[in-house]
Amino acid sequence: MWRRSLQLESLFAAALALLMDQLRNPADGAAVGASLSRLEAIARMGSLRLEGEALRVASLQDTATAVGAALTANAMATHQLVSIEVHRTVTRDECLALARALLAPPPMDRVELSPVFRNTLWNIKVVTTVPAPSAAAARRTAAVAPGTVLQQTAAAVKAGNAGEALAVMSAVVSDPVFRAAATPEALKLVAQVVAGPPGPDVAVAMTIIERAGEEGVRAVFQHLMAAEDIAERRRCFDACRNLSTGTRVFQEYLSHPLWYVVRNAALLLGETGAASAVPALGRLLKHEEERVRIAAVTSLGLIGGPDAGARLETALHDSAQEVRQQAMSVLFAHQKPASERFSRGHPSDVNEDSGGQLEAVRALGRVKTQAAALKLEALAAGRTPDATLELRLAAMDALADGHRALAMRLLPRFASDPSTTVRAKVAELLR
Questions:
Q1: pTM of this prediction?
Q2: Which domain holds residue 277?
Q3: Residue 350 has pLDDT above 80, yes or no
Q4: Is the pLDDT of residue 112 over 60?
Q5: In this predicted model, what pLDDT tens digit does every residue of 239-248 receive, in sequence order?
Q6: Planar angle of CA 299, 404, 380, nearest 5 degrees
Q7: How many domains does the chain contain in total?
Q8: Same domain membership, residue 420 and residue 334
Protein backbone atom coordinates (compact mmCIF):
# COMPACT_ATOMS: atom_id res chain seq x y z
CA MET A 1 0.00 0.00 0.00
CA TRP A 2 1.21 3.51 -0.79
CA ARG A 3 1.26 6.09 2.00
CA ARG A 4 -1.56 8.12 0.54
CA SER A 5 -3.93 8.27 -2.39
CA LEU A 6 -2.23 8.65 -5.74
CA GLN A 7 -4.99 10.85 -7.10
CA LEU A 8 -3.23 14.21 -6.70
CA GLU A 9 0.15 12.78 -7.68
CA SER A 10 -1.36 11.25 -10.82
CA LEU A 11 -3.06 14.54 -11.71
CA PHE A 12 0.19 16.43 -11.26
CA ALA A 13 2.14 13.84 -13.25
CA ALA A 14 -0.37 14.01 -16.10
CA ALA A 15 -0.29 17.81 -16.13
CA LEU A 16 3.51 17.70 -16.09
CA ALA A 17 3.54 15.27 -19.02
CA LEU A 18 1.24 17.60 -20.97
CA LEU A 19 3.57 20.53 -20.30
CA MET A 20 6.58 18.49 -21.45
CA ASP A 21 4.73 17.64 -24.66
CA GLN A 22 3.92 21.31 -25.23
CA LEU A 23 7.57 22.24 -24.76
CA ARG A 24 8.74 19.41 -27.01
CA ASN A 25 6.30 20.41 -29.76
CA PRO A 26 6.12 24.17 -29.25
CA ALA A 27 2.60 25.23 -28.34
CA ASP A 28 1.32 28.78 -28.03
CA GLY A 29 2.11 30.70 -24.89
CA ALA A 30 -1.48 30.54 -23.63
CA ALA A 31 -1.45 26.72 -23.63
CA VAL A 32 1.86 26.59 -21.76
CA GLY A 33 0.59 29.20 -19.31
CA ALA A 34 -2.58 27.17 -18.70
CA SER A 35 -0.49 24.07 -17.97
CA LEU A 36 1.69 25.99 -15.51
CA SER A 37 -1.42 27.35 -13.77
CA ARG A 38 -2.82 23.83 -13.57
CA LEU A 39 0.36 22.48 -11.97
CA GLU A 40 0.46 25.34 -9.49
CA ALA A 41 -3.21 24.82 -8.56
CA ILE A 42 -2.75 21.08 -7.99
CA ALA A 43 0.27 21.70 -5.77
CA ARG A 44 -1.68 24.25 -3.70
CA MET A 45 -4.02 21.41 -2.70
CA GLY A 46 -1.20 19.78 -0.75
CA SER A 47 2.47 18.95 -1.02
CA LEU A 48 3.10 16.02 -3.36
CA ARG A 49 5.55 13.16 -3.69
CA LEU A 50 5.81 11.65 -7.17
CA GLU A 51 7.31 8.18 -6.85
CA GLY A 52 8.42 6.53 -10.07
CA GLU A 53 7.27 3.07 -9.04
CA ALA A 54 3.91 4.32 -7.77
CA LEU A 55 3.32 6.24 -11.01
CA ARG A 56 3.97 3.06 -12.96
CA VAL A 57 1.30 1.33 -10.91
CA ALA A 58 -1.06 4.25 -11.55
CA SER A 59 -0.34 4.03 -15.29
CA LEU A 60 -1.85 0.53 -15.32
CA GLN A 61 -5.20 1.83 -14.09
CA ASP A 62 -7.98 2.65 -16.50
CA THR A 63 -8.00 6.39 -15.75
CA ALA A 64 -7.64 9.61 -17.69
CA THR A 65 -4.27 10.25 -16.05
CA ALA A 66 -2.72 6.84 -16.79
CA VAL A 67 -0.83 7.87 -19.94
CA GLY A 68 0.53 11.04 -18.33
CA ALA A 69 1.63 9.09 -15.25
CA ALA A 70 3.55 6.65 -17.47
CA LEU A 71 5.26 9.43 -19.45
CA THR A 72 6.38 11.22 -16.29
CA ALA A 73 7.60 7.95 -14.76
CA ASN A 74 9.67 7.26 -17.89
CA ALA A 75 11.19 10.75 -17.78
CA MET A 76 12.11 10.25 -14.13
CA ALA A 77 13.72 6.91 -14.91
CA THR A 78 15.80 8.53 -17.66
CA HIS A 79 17.30 10.89 -15.06
CA GLN A 80 17.56 8.15 -12.39
CA LEU A 81 15.04 9.88 -10.14
CA VAL A 82 13.36 7.71 -7.53
CA SER A 83 10.94 10.45 -6.45
CA ILE A 84 10.14 14.13 -6.85
CA GLU A 85 8.78 16.07 -3.87
CA VAL A 86 6.78 19.18 -4.75
CA HIS A 87 6.01 21.69 -2.00
CA ARG A 88 2.66 23.44 -2.07
CA THR A 89 4.40 26.81 -2.52
CA VAL A 90 6.03 25.75 -5.79
CA THR A 91 6.15 28.54 -8.37
CA ARG A 92 5.33 28.53 -12.07
CA ASP A 93 9.01 29.19 -12.87
CA GLU A 94 9.99 26.08 -10.92
CA CYS A 95 7.36 23.94 -12.67
CA LEU A 96 8.68 25.14 -16.01
CA ALA A 97 12.29 24.44 -14.97
CA LEU A 98 11.31 20.95 -13.82
CA ALA A 99 9.62 20.13 -17.13
CA ARG A 100 12.60 21.39 -19.12
CA ALA A 101 15.02 19.42 -16.94
CA LEU A 102 13.04 16.21 -17.45
CA LEU A 103 13.05 16.81 -21.21
CA ALA A 104 16.81 17.47 -21.36
CA PRO A 105 19.17 14.52 -21.95
CA PRO A 106 20.93 13.32 -18.79
CA PRO A 107 24.67 13.92 -18.35
CA MET A 108 26.67 11.69 -20.68
CA ASP A 109 28.67 9.93 -17.97
CA ARG A 110 25.52 9.02 -15.97
CA VAL A 111 27.35 9.56 -12.68
CA GLU A 112 26.38 13.18 -12.14
CA LEU A 113 22.90 14.53 -11.53
CA SER A 114 21.66 17.27 -13.85
CA PRO A 115 22.51 20.62 -12.14
CA VAL A 116 18.90 21.79 -12.23
CA PHE A 117 17.89 18.88 -9.96
CA ARG A 118 20.86 19.39 -7.68
CA ASN A 119 20.64 23.13 -7.03
CA THR A 120 17.96 25.18 -8.76
CA LEU A 121 14.52 24.15 -7.53
CA TRP A 122 13.88 25.41 -4.02
CA ASN A 123 10.33 24.02 -3.72
CA ILE A 124 11.10 20.78 -5.57
CA LYS A 125 13.36 18.09 -4.12
CA VAL A 126 14.45 14.88 -5.79
CA VAL A 127 15.66 11.51 -4.58
CA THR A 128 18.01 9.86 -7.03
CA THR A 129 20.11 6.77 -7.58
CA VAL A 130 22.97 8.98 -8.79
CA PRO A 131 25.77 8.89 -6.19
CA ALA A 132 26.66 11.91 -4.11
CA PRO A 133 29.41 14.19 -5.41
CA SER A 134 32.83 12.57 -5.42
CA ALA A 135 35.45 12.95 -2.71
CA ALA A 136 37.40 15.17 -5.07
CA ALA A 137 34.41 17.48 -5.37
CA ALA A 138 34.04 17.50 -1.61
CA ARG A 139 37.69 18.46 -1.19
CA ARG A 140 37.12 21.46 -3.43
CA THR A 141 34.80 22.87 -0.76
CA ALA A 142 36.91 21.89 2.22
CA ALA A 143 36.99 24.32 5.12
CA VAL A 144 39.56 27.10 4.96
CA ALA A 145 41.15 29.11 7.77
CA PRO A 146 38.72 31.49 9.54
CA GLY A 147 40.86 34.54 8.79
CA THR A 148 40.89 33.64 5.10
CA VAL A 149 37.10 33.21 5.05
CA LEU A 150 36.56 36.66 6.55
CA GLN A 151 39.07 38.26 4.20
CA GLN A 152 37.53 36.60 1.15
CA THR A 153 34.00 37.56 2.21
CA ALA A 154 35.05 41.17 2.81
CA ALA A 155 36.72 41.26 -0.59
CA ALA A 156 33.58 39.90 -2.26
CA VAL A 157 31.46 42.53 -0.52
CA LYS A 158 33.82 45.33 -1.52
CA ALA A 159 33.77 44.17 -5.14
CA GLY A 160 30.00 43.56 -5.10
CA ASN A 161 30.70 40.01 -6.27
CA ALA A 162 27.70 37.92 -5.20
CA GLY A 163 29.04 34.75 -6.83
CA GLU A 164 32.26 34.91 -4.83
CA ALA A 165 30.34 35.57 -1.62
CA LEU A 166 28.24 32.46 -2.26
CA ALA A 167 31.30 30.34 -2.97
CA VAL A 168 33.07 31.38 0.22
CA MET A 169 30.11 31.28 2.62
CA SER A 170 28.67 28.00 1.34
CA ALA A 171 32.01 26.27 2.04
CA VAL A 172 32.18 27.34 5.70
CA VAL A 173 31.75 24.42 8.12
CA SER A 174 32.21 26.16 11.48
CA ASP A 175 29.09 27.95 12.76
CA PRO A 176 31.05 30.69 14.60
CA VAL A 177 33.06 31.42 11.46
CA PHE A 178 29.89 31.46 9.36
CA ARG A 179 28.21 33.93 11.74
CA ALA A 180 31.27 36.19 11.56
CA ALA A 181 31.25 36.05 7.76
CA ALA A 182 27.48 36.55 7.44
CA THR A 183 27.53 40.31 7.90
CA PRO A 184 24.53 42.41 6.81
CA GLU A 185 26.55 43.54 3.79
CA ALA A 186 27.42 39.97 2.79
CA LEU A 187 23.84 38.81 3.26
CA LYS A 188 22.65 41.71 1.14
CA LEU A 189 24.72 40.29 -1.72
CA VAL A 190 23.26 36.83 -1.12
CA ALA A 191 19.74 38.27 -1.12
CA GLN A 192 20.41 39.70 -4.59
CA VAL A 193 20.90 36.14 -5.83
CA VAL A 194 17.71 34.98 -4.13
CA ALA A 195 15.82 37.79 -5.88
CA GLY A 196 17.38 37.06 -9.25
CA PRO A 197 16.15 34.76 -11.99
CA PRO A 198 16.10 30.98 -11.34
CA GLY A 199 19.50 29.36 -11.66
CA PRO A 200 21.90 26.96 -9.95
CA ASP A 201 22.96 29.56 -7.38
CA VAL A 202 19.48 30.25 -5.98
CA ALA A 203 19.30 27.11 -3.81
CA VAL A 204 22.83 27.79 -2.53
CA ALA A 205 21.84 31.34 -1.64
CA MET A 206 18.69 30.16 0.14
CA THR A 207 20.71 27.68 2.19
CA ILE A 208 22.98 30.52 3.32
CA ILE A 209 20.01 32.77 4.12
CA GLU A 210 18.32 30.01 6.14
CA ARG A 211 21.51 29.30 8.03
CA ALA A 212 21.91 32.99 8.86
CA GLY A 213 18.59 32.92 10.72
CA GLU A 214 16.78 36.19 11.38
CA GLU A 215 19.57 38.26 9.82
CA GLY A 216 19.14 36.27 6.61
CA VAL A 217 15.38 36.81 6.64
CA ARG A 218 15.92 40.52 7.24
CA ALA A 219 18.26 40.77 4.24
CA VAL A 220 15.70 39.21 1.89
CA PHE A 221 12.82 41.26 3.31
CA GLN A 222 14.79 44.47 2.91
CA HIS A 223 15.46 43.52 -0.71
CA LEU A 224 11.71 42.98 -1.09
CA MET A 225 11.13 46.49 0.28
CA ALA A 226 13.49 48.05 -2.25
CA ALA A 227 12.76 45.94 -5.34
CA GLU A 228 11.05 47.77 -8.19
CA ASP A 229 10.59 44.82 -10.56
CA ILE A 230 7.39 42.83 -9.95
CA ALA A 231 9.00 39.45 -10.69
CA GLU A 232 11.85 40.26 -8.32
CA ARG A 233 9.41 41.20 -5.55
CA ARG A 234 7.54 37.95 -6.07
CA ARG A 235 10.73 35.92 -5.78
CA CYS A 236 11.68 37.73 -2.56
CA PHE A 237 8.21 37.19 -1.12
CA ASP A 238 8.26 33.48 -1.99
CA ALA A 239 11.71 33.15 -0.45
CA CYS A 240 10.58 34.85 2.77
CA ARG A 241 7.60 32.58 3.22
CA ASN A 242 9.83 29.52 2.86
CA LEU A 243 12.16 30.62 5.66
CA SER A 244 11.61 29.12 9.09
CA THR A 245 12.83 32.00 11.26
CA GLY A 246 10.89 34.97 9.93
CA THR A 247 8.13 35.54 12.48
CA ARG A 248 9.92 38.08 14.70
CA VAL A 249 11.45 39.88 11.72
CA PHE A 250 8.09 40.32 10.00
CA GLN A 251 6.53 41.60 13.20
CA GLU A 252 9.26 44.27 13.43
CA TYR A 253 8.02 45.77 10.17
CA LEU A 254 4.36 46.04 11.19
CA SER A 255 5.02 49.57 12.44
CA HIS A 256 6.93 50.70 9.35
CA PRO A 257 5.76 54.08 7.94
CA LEU A 258 5.27 52.70 4.40
CA TRP A 259 1.93 50.92 4.06
CA TYR A 260 3.11 48.40 1.46
CA VAL A 261 5.94 47.27 3.74
CA VAL A 262 3.41 46.68 6.53
CA ARG A 263 1.12 44.84 4.11
CA ASN A 264 3.88 42.48 2.98
CA ALA A 265 4.96 41.81 6.57
CA ALA A 266 1.35 41.07 7.53
CA LEU A 267 0.86 38.66 4.63
CA LEU A 268 4.09 36.84 5.44
CA LEU A 269 3.03 36.44 9.07
CA GLY A 270 -0.04 34.65 7.81
CA GLU A 271 2.16 32.31 5.78
CA THR A 272 4.13 31.41 8.91
CA GLY A 273 0.95 30.29 10.66
CA ALA A 274 2.35 31.70 13.92
CA ALA A 275 -0.37 32.09 16.56
CA SER A 276 1.91 34.53 18.38
CA ALA A 277 1.30 37.01 15.54
CA VAL A 278 -2.47 37.17 16.07
CA PRO A 279 -2.49 40.13 18.53
CA ALA A 280 -0.27 42.23 16.26
CA LEU A 281 -2.37 41.37 13.20
CA GLY A 282 -5.49 42.23 15.16
CA ARG A 283 -4.10 45.71 15.83
CA LEU A 284 -3.61 46.17 12.09
CA LEU A 285 -7.39 45.97 11.64
CA LYS A 286 -7.34 49.63 12.77
CA HIS A 287 -4.63 50.68 10.30
CA GLU A 288 -5.54 53.71 8.21
CA GLU A 289 -4.68 51.97 4.92
CA GLU A 290 -7.44 49.68 3.66
CA ARG A 291 -4.99 47.37 1.86
CA VAL A 292 -3.16 46.72 5.13
CA ARG A 293 -6.43 45.82 6.84
CA ILE A 294 -7.24 43.40 4.02
CA ALA A 295 -3.83 41.76 4.45
CA ALA A 296 -4.41 41.44 8.21
CA VAL A 297 -7.78 39.77 7.62
CA THR A 298 -6.23 37.34 5.14
CA SER A 299 -3.46 36.36 7.52
CA LEU A 300 -5.76 35.95 10.51
CA GLY A 301 -7.76 33.53 8.40
CA LEU A 302 -4.65 31.57 7.47
CA ILE A 303 -3.52 31.29 11.08
CA GLY A 304 -6.93 30.34 12.41
CA GLY A 305 -7.95 29.54 15.96
CA PRO A 306 -10.50 31.09 18.34
CA ASP A 307 -8.41 34.20 19.04
CA ALA A 308 -8.02 34.98 15.34
CA GLY A 309 -11.72 34.26 14.81
CA ALA A 310 -12.76 36.74 17.47
CA ARG A 311 -10.61 39.44 15.89
CA LEU A 312 -11.97 38.66 12.44
CA GLU A 313 -15.43 39.31 13.74
CA THR A 314 -14.56 42.99 14.17
CA ALA A 315 -13.56 43.22 10.50
CA LEU A 316 -17.16 42.53 9.56
CA HIS A 317 -17.96 46.06 10.72
CA ASP A 318 -15.08 47.77 8.87
CA SER A 319 -15.91 51.04 7.12
CA ALA A 320 -14.50 49.72 3.82
CA GLN A 321 -16.59 47.27 1.80
CA GLU A 322 -13.47 45.51 0.46
CA VAL A 323 -12.34 44.70 3.99
CA ARG A 324 -15.77 43.37 4.93
CA GLN A 325 -15.89 41.25 1.81
CA GLN A 326 -12.42 39.85 2.48
CA ALA A 327 -13.48 38.95 6.01
CA MET A 328 -16.48 37.16 4.51
CA SER A 329 -14.40 35.23 2.01
CA VAL A 330 -11.90 34.23 4.71
CA LEU A 331 -14.58 33.03 7.07
CA PHE A 332 -16.22 30.96 4.37
CA ALA A 333 -12.94 29.83 2.84
CA HIS A 334 -12.98 26.19 1.84
CA GLN A 335 -10.65 24.05 3.87
CA LYS A 336 -7.24 25.38 4.58
CA PRO A 337 -4.77 23.10 6.32
CA ALA A 338 -4.39 23.61 10.05
CA SER A 339 -6.86 26.51 10.12
CA GLU A 340 -10.24 26.69 11.81
CA ARG A 341 -12.95 28.49 9.88
CA PHE A 342 -14.75 31.44 11.30
CA SER A 343 -17.36 33.85 10.04
CA ARG A 344 -18.13 37.41 9.89
CA GLY A 345 -20.09 40.35 10.80
CA HIS A 346 -23.50 41.35 11.81
CA PRO A 347 -25.92 42.39 9.06
CA SER A 348 -27.37 45.28 11.01
CA ASP A 349 -23.93 46.88 11.05
CA VAL A 350 -23.07 46.10 7.42
CA ASN A 351 -24.92 48.13 4.86
CA GLU A 352 -25.05 45.63 2.01
CA ASP A 353 -27.71 43.81 0.01
CA SER A 354 -29.83 41.06 1.55
CA GLY A 355 -27.64 38.36 0.00
CA GLY A 356 -24.60 39.77 1.77
CA GLN A 357 -26.58 40.05 5.00
CA LEU A 358 -27.66 36.42 4.83
CA GLU A 359 -24.09 35.34 4.22
CA ALA A 360 -22.92 37.40 7.18
CA VAL A 361 -25.54 35.87 9.48
CA ARG A 362 -24.60 32.33 8.46
CA ALA A 363 -20.97 33.21 9.01
CA LEU A 364 -21.67 34.12 12.62
CA GLY A 365 -22.52 30.49 13.20
CA ARG A 366 -18.83 29.72 12.81
CA VAL A 367 -17.55 32.47 15.08
CA LYS A 368 -17.21 30.76 18.45
CA THR A 369 -17.63 33.84 20.64
CA GLN A 370 -20.31 34.94 23.07
CA ALA A 371 -20.81 38.17 21.14
CA ALA A 372 -21.60 36.26 17.94
CA ALA A 373 -24.04 34.01 19.78
CA LEU A 374 -25.85 37.00 21.33
CA LYS A 375 -26.17 38.71 17.94
CA LEU A 376 -27.68 35.56 16.47
CA GLU A 377 -30.06 35.23 19.41
CA ALA A 378 -31.28 38.82 18.95
CA LEU A 379 -31.78 38.29 15.22
CA ALA A 380 -33.58 34.97 15.62
CA ALA A 381 -35.92 36.54 18.18
CA GLY A 382 -36.61 39.50 15.85
CA ARG A 383 -35.29 42.03 18.34
CA THR A 384 -33.35 44.08 15.75
CA PRO A 385 -34.90 46.64 13.38
CA ASP A 386 -33.75 44.79 10.25
CA ALA A 387 -34.75 41.28 11.37
CA THR A 388 -36.66 40.23 8.28
CA LEU A 389 -38.14 36.75 8.10
CA GLU A 390 -35.24 35.64 5.90
CA LEU A 391 -32.67 36.89 8.39
CA ARG A 392 -34.47 35.29 11.33
CA LEU A 393 -34.46 31.91 9.59
CA ALA A 394 -30.77 32.30 8.69
CA ALA A 395 -29.97 33.16 12.32
CA MET A 396 -31.74 30.02 13.52
CA ASP A 397 -29.75 27.92 11.06
CA ALA A 398 -26.51 29.55 12.20
CA LEU A 399 -27.34 28.92 15.86
CA ALA A 400 -28.08 25.26 15.19
CA ASP A 401 -24.90 24.94 13.10
CA GLY A 402 -22.39 26.62 15.39
CA HIS A 403 -24.00 27.28 18.78
CA ARG A 404 -25.97 24.09 19.31
CA ALA A 405 -26.37 24.31 23.07
CA LEU A 406 -27.83 27.82 22.88
CA ALA A 407 -30.04 26.79 19.97
CA MET A 408 -31.53 23.90 21.96
CA ARG A 409 -32.47 26.33 24.76
CA LEU A 410 -33.68 29.12 22.50
CA LEU A 411 -35.57 27.48 19.64
CA PRO A 412 -38.41 25.98 21.71
CA ARG A 413 -39.43 29.57 22.61
CA PHE A 414 -40.35 30.13 18.97
CA ALA A 415 -42.59 27.06 18.72
CA SER A 416 -45.64 29.31 19.04
CA ASP A 417 -44.32 32.15 16.86
CA PRO A 418 -47.01 33.93 14.80
CA SER A 419 -45.14 33.00 11.60
CA THR A 420 -45.94 29.51 10.30
CA THR A 421 -42.57 29.55 8.47
CA VAL A 422 -40.72 30.15 11.75
CA ARG A 423 -42.67 27.37 13.46
CA ALA A 424 -41.81 24.98 10.62
CA LYS A 425 -38.13 25.93 10.84
CA VAL A 426 -38.12 25.30 14.61
CA ALA A 427 -39.70 21.87 14.14
CA GLU A 428 -37.09 21.05 11.46
CA LEU A 429 -34.12 22.07 13.58
CA LEU A 430 -35.34 20.35 16.75
CA ARG A 431 -35.87 17.03 14.99
A1: 0.54
A2: 246-344
A3: no
A4: no
A5: 998 888 899 9
A6: 90
A7: 4
A8: no
